[in-house]
Amino acid sequence: MSLVELKNIYKSFGGVVALRGINFEIGSNEVVGILGDNGAGKSTLIKIITGLHPFDDGEMYIKGQKIDPKTYSVKMAHEMGIETVYQEKALAAKQALWRNIFLGRQITNRFGFIKVKEEKEITNRIMRDIIGFTGIGANPDSTIKTLSGGEQQGVAIGRAMHFDADLVILDEPTIALSLQEVRKVLNFIRKIKENGKSCVYISHNIANVYPVSDRFVAIDRGQVVGNYRREDITLEELNDELIRLTKVKEGNN
Amino acid sequence: MKLAESKTTLDYSRYKLQIGLVIITFLIFILFMITSPDVFLSPRIYRSFLSTVPFVGVMALGLTLVLAMGEIDLSFPAVMALSGFVFASIFGSTGSIILGLICSMAVGAVVGFMNGTLVTRIGIPSIVVTLGMQFLIRGLSNVLSQGLAKPMTLDETIFYNLFAGTFLTIPIQSLWFLGLAVLLWFILFRHKFGEHVLFVGDNEDATRMMGVNVNRVKIMVFMLMGVMASFAGILDLFKMRTWWPTMGEGYLMMTMAAVFVGGTSMFGGEATIFGTFVGAFLIGSLEAGIVAAGLSGFWTRLIYGLLILVAVTLHTVLKKNR
Ligand SMILES: Nc1ncnc2c1ncn2[C@@H]1O[C@H](COP(=O)(O)OP(=O)(O)OP(=O)(O)O)[C@@H](O)[C@H]1O
Ligand SMILES: [Mg+2]
């Protein structure tokens, strides 16, 4: 049984059709790399899986369970073990780091009051063990706006890593990162695979996506235009394939 | 990843803002004591502040949460009037204070729900929605009352002691204000609901991405604002023992001034309950101080304006220097 299955999914925003009949699948213990141009619909696709956008038409199954777009939500996705690092990072600039880590999943007493000390302690641990913040100024109380772009990315990734997920979705996670940090993210993806979990990895950098993915899905103007297993294709061939798809597109225009 | 070192000074500068506010307040009161010692060195004037400032103060607490989530409410003075009218009518016809209380709070909640729903589901900016609502609600209470005041005999019940009496010589209104301020501080900074309010004001999209029901948070804050306005109205009614059609007029600017002078900004994502608490007393005592100093009432607005601009400039500059 696949972890996530999308059948003929449509989604539009006002007049813009972002997805037109997407068929997409994530197997259990599979790393899927999604490739495609700017505006192809990659982020829209994953936001449907994470419960942020309801789809207009088609069918979606998560762990075999049919999803009703009217009631599906980010909260339900969290409960079903889906964690996401959004392209937009999804951090609130003026709020403390520890609050950003636990937003929406606060550790509270039964009246809903936050256990501040506990959340800060865990944040400290996440910063040290998962993100690898080493600076002496590293502090769960720091507001997000005082962190560098790469550090903010680290917080978003650390948050997704902390909540033990069956599926981790990474949308352009390496965009603000140094080479060393990129290697950390790629190792994280390998660890997800080793732990028997699944991952969706979106990036414009094919050289990064290639070595960690089991399968590649190419998306163009809201449709799946290619599906390749890594054992069947080399990095060069994949590159050529994507260039060929772009040429077809230009020919159509 | 290494973090720069300067980040631990943050908390200190947050307190700097509040300390500054307290110093300004004390300076102003010392000034009043110098200009009119006979008034400001006797406890009477302070007892008077403690019983009148809470009307504005309670609403300022609600408004602090509205601003924290990056929205605004202009309808609360009219809500105060309408729910006051509902209380007066129900108490007048049934004699039941409890029923009157429940119904008047419900009015505040319903108006807040309508505000919140129009803002979130239809997508109208809150300044527009609440401006329209303010006219609608004020108009409704005018139509229902036909512009006539409603005197009440409230001073014989135990509720009178609860809402307009004194506790160890302290006017009870101020204890309500203090209690609500403490409660709202805990809700805003220690409860997950308050955390959601601050995040919504800071970055609505991010908050939604982390699974918070943003619309529900907004609607609930507008409802809270409505209930706070109703409650301020109740306190006002018990003190005045009459409902009057222009009730609440003049409170809009006072309330906003209290919140802004206190240091909460319109940008959302941050707020200070402590600042609002002090700001309400500062704004609420200014007029008495100016008049007692022998200046004519004409000076009041000028000095209000000056104080607001100076305070808000200070807050903004201090925040930038963080
Ligand atoms: N919330 C939204 N409202 C309106 N239009 C949207 C929204 N989100 C996406 N779109 C539109 O849908 C299309 C697909 O956008 P999407 O963000 O999914 O692309 P993408 O493949 O992630 O691109 P990129 O590589 O630049 O991140 C674009 O035309 C975009 O303008
Ligand atoms: Mg994208």
Report what the structure shows.
The complex is a heterodimer of chains A (253) and B (322). Chain A contains 8 helices and 10 strands. Chain A has helices at 42-49, 74-79, 97-102, 116-131, 149-162, 179-194, 206-212, 235-252, and strands at 4-13, 16-26, 31-36, 57-62, 65-66, 82-85, 167-171, 198-202, 215-220, 223-229. The longest helix of chain A has 18 residues, at 235-252. Chain B is mainly α. Chain B has a domain at 48-247. Chain B has 14 helices and 4 strands. In chain B, helix 1 packs antiparallel against helix 14 (298-320), helix 3 (43-68) crosses helix 12 (251-262) and helix 9 packs across helix 11 (214-240). Chain B is globular and about 60 Å long. Mean pLDDT of chain B is 90; it is low at 1-10. Classes of the chains: A alpha/beta (253), B mainly alpha (322). The A-B interface holds A 50-52, 73-75, 77-78, 84, 86, 88-95, 99, 103-106, 108, 111-114, 116, 131-139, 141-143, 146-148, 150-151, 154, 181 and B 1-8, 10-11, 186, 190-193, 195-196, 198-199, 202-203, 205-213, 269-270. The structure holds adenosine-5'-triphosphate (ATP) and magnesium ion (MG). The site of adenosine-5'-triphosphate (ATP) has 12 residues of chain A, from strand 2 and helix 1.
Task: Give a nutshell description of this structure.
The complex is a heterodimer of chains A (253) and B (322). Chain A is of the alpha/beta class and 253 residues long. Chain A has helices spanning 42-49, 74-79, 97-102, 116-131, 149-162, 179-194, 206-212, 235-252, and strands spanning 4-13, 16-26, 31-36, 57-62, 65-66, 82-85, 167-171, 198-202, 215-220, 223-229.
